[in-house]
Recover the amino acids of this structure.
């Protein structure tokens, strides 16, 4: 069954006009690859996760999973189509574009948080307090108990125009 939705606007997002472009997704530019003849996909948008560099490996994985799940619930266009294998077995849809994962110091993460707020980009946060909770209700309570400037951030996910997201994560390095 096909669902329809209306994407909520955010500052800086421009409405798009209908075009004759064969690509139905306006956030993706298709450019021919001269060597292979294939058309690589280049997205006009970016998904980035910024992790605090002092996290344990299990924490990095856990935080990343939680953060990207938040983007798909509020921004339906980041989710692709369902998958199906050759035997017709169906699988859930996933994010339609790569997720860039970065790491930074606690101070750089705080700076990135201020940047994402000033640009009003869609974002998700994970604070150190969430490692001590065991459910969604307690997670929300833990975040709500701390003022914005006092959040002990360990992770941040952001989605938006590629150049705006690049400015948010400026100074961070790609996760090894």
């Amino acid at each position: 069954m096909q669902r329809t939705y209306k994407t909520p606007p955010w500052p800086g997002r421009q409405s798009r006009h209908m075009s004759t472009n064969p690509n139905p997704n306006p956030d993706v530019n298709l450019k021919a690859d001269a060597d292979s003849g294939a058309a690589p996909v280049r997205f006009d948008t970016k998904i980035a996760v910024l992790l605090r560099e002092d996290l344990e490996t299990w924490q990095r994985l856990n935080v990343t999973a939680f953060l990207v799940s938040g983007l798909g619930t509020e921004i339906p266009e980041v989710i692709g189509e369902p998958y199906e294998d050759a035997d017709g077995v169906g699988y859930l849809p996933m994010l339609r574009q790569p997720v860039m994962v970065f790491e930074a110091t606690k101070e750089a993460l705080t700076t990135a948080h201020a940047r994402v707020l000033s640009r009003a980009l869609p974002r998700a946060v994970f604070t150190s307090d969430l490692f001590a909770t065991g459910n969604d209700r307690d997670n929300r309570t833990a975040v709500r108990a701390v003022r914005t400037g006092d959040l002990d951030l360990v992770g941040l996910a952001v989605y938006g125009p590629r150049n705006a997201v690049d400015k948010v994560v400026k100074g961070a390095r790609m996760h090894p």
In short: The radius of gyration is 18 Å. The CA atoms of residues 17 and 156 lie 32 Å apart. Residues 1-24, 30-34 have pLDDT under 50 and may be disordered. The beta strands are 28-30, 41-43, 45-52, 83-84, 90-91, 99-104, 123-127, 153-161, 173-174.
